[in-house]
What does this fold into?
Amino acid sequence: MSKNSIISTLILLPLSKLYGFGVGVRNLMFKWHILKQREFPVPVIVVGNIGVGGTGKTPHTEYIIDLLRYKYRIGMLSRGYKRQTKGFVLATDRSTPLDIGDEPYQIYQKFGRDITVAVCEDRCTGIDEMLRLDPKINLIVLDDAFQHRYVKPTVSIVLTEFNNPVFYDKLLPLGRLREPASAIYRADMVVVTKCPEQLKKLEYRIFKNNLKLFPYQKLFFSGFDYAPLRPLFPDVIKDTLHMQWLSETDTVLVLSGIANPKPLIKHLKQFSAKIKVKLFPDHHNFSRRDLDTIVRRFNELEGNRKFIVTTEKDAVRLINNPYFPHELKSHIYYQPIEVRFDPLNPDKFDLELQKLLLNNIK
It folds into this structure.
């Protein structure tokens, strides 16, 4: 450990202890019923994590919605992180990422015909309003709400990343944990995300031993499947793009404003094209200056053919950006991803989730 790392740890450790004390007091207040949890007349699935961002909550939320949307009338509620509105907002065809946040907007674009999507900082108020507006809703999915304990979940699903598991992490601000790793005991299902295609028996054992789950908790492993690249502006480019079509004389600029772009970059680097990277903070709203910088970076690239590849979450912000330069529209694609559960037993998660829901329906 370097001298700077030691100094940083000495400064942040007391703050981390203080933060942990505050989180512990809050959790005790819920345990002793000083702070109250509310039950609702419909089942509630909570999808969340213990760390800060980057575990793949949105793709897993989409997976759950896709699994259940023909069996239930689903209401999906999020706080709408970094939106420019306040209070309860129902997603409509006129909504933008600035109205409801990029993740709810992405989900609405995919499933809005089959489900109700809304955002609200106060999840209890949000659920009440959704049920009032659409009494046919018989299942609520809460995105990123594991710490929002005022809602009593029917099924609680916690995600932890394969390359950054909670048991090796520290509390904020020393690490990335929102609460101690031991809080995972509240989860019904734990999913280790962003796993490699083939897990070794030792890796299964490491997670099983270190997570120390109770018998009532179920452990699953998931990864991402990468579909062909889709054009961000299909009116300009009609066809998808396969990375294997590119050669070592081609260059791809990876443009990302998500918490953890490393899996995407790793995926793209396995192909022949040269990979360059331009990163922005998570949930970044691209300004005109940002886009000017991207144009300059793109023009500086060398290569027979040049492309920009961005994430699906960034795509919803870029396509709605009034400053997006016309000269880049014929070069930019986004990478769709789909959740893939452990190929040794791919249906186990689906069956377990549906069983938990059926067992808890009043």
About this structure: The longest strand covers residues 218-226. Residues 200 and 206 are 10 Å apart (CA to CA). The mean pLDDT is 93. The radius of gyration is 21 Å.
